[in-house]
Amino acid sequence: AQSVSQHNHHVILSEAASLELGCNYSYGGTVNLFWYVQYPGQHLQLLLKYFSGDPLVKGIKGFEAEFIKSKFSFNLRKPSVQWSDTAEYFCAVNARQGAQKLVFGQGTRLTINP
Amino acid sequence: EAGVAQSPRYKIIEKRQSVAFWCNPISGHATLYWYQQILGQGPKLLIQFQNNGVVDDSQLPKDRFSAERLKGVDSTLKIQPAKLEDSAVYLCASSPPGWGGASNTEAFFGQGTRLTVV
Known about the structure:
The complex is a heterodimer.
Chain A: E1 3-6, E2 10-14, E3 19-21, E4 23-26, E5 31-38, E6 45-50, E7 56-58, E8 64-68, E9 73-78, E10 87-95, E11 102-104, E12 108-113
Parallel strand pairs in A: 2-12
Antiparallel strand pairs in A: 1-4, 3-9, 5-6, 5-10, 7-8, 8-9, 10-11, 10-12
Chain B: E1 5-7, E2 10-13, E3 19-24, E4 31-37, E5 44-50, E6 53-56, E7 65-68, E8 75-79, E9 88-95, E10 108-109, E11 113-117
Parallel strand pairs in B: 2-11
Antiparallel strand pairs in B: 1-3, 3-8, 4-5, 4-9, 5-6, 7-8, 9-10, 9-11
């Protein structure tokens, strides 16, 4: 069964700082990878996803993520964060075989100070 | 396009009582999920349906939790009897046909039901 690990529980940055949130997964087969965001009081929304092709994927609001297959990683990046990026970020993976469950990491709380 | 609808938004019950949550997925979505999200943790998959069949319920505490998806559309999740540790947000999500393979789809989430067991 697949699992997801997010390295940072809580990240605090100032506006305009660069962001990188770590995500590693464990699964031996082919996977699809996702980053979801949950703004305060709102439901989970998709930031970006990787299915195949270019391992560098771009999402909404200037976010991007790079799939490094050899490292089983899918780290999220943003060159310059804004106060409005304050939210909880979740990495998720689904295996393409078997039950194709969507499994989430424990999340990273991001606080941006103005 | 209407999103995933869940009700109620909030529920407070005493331990040992029963509670039910309802989910209406996006029209045409074949896969439906129920997740439990405890404060400070990521969503934990409780059960996954494909149409009205169960694909995975390995993490559903079957002695107290049950779920059904009648006619492959709406779904209900029930807890009976509730325990203090069941306090969490219960999320419903759905995804369209073709999910999980090489097709470029995603899961869409509802607002969730916040359950407090006292």
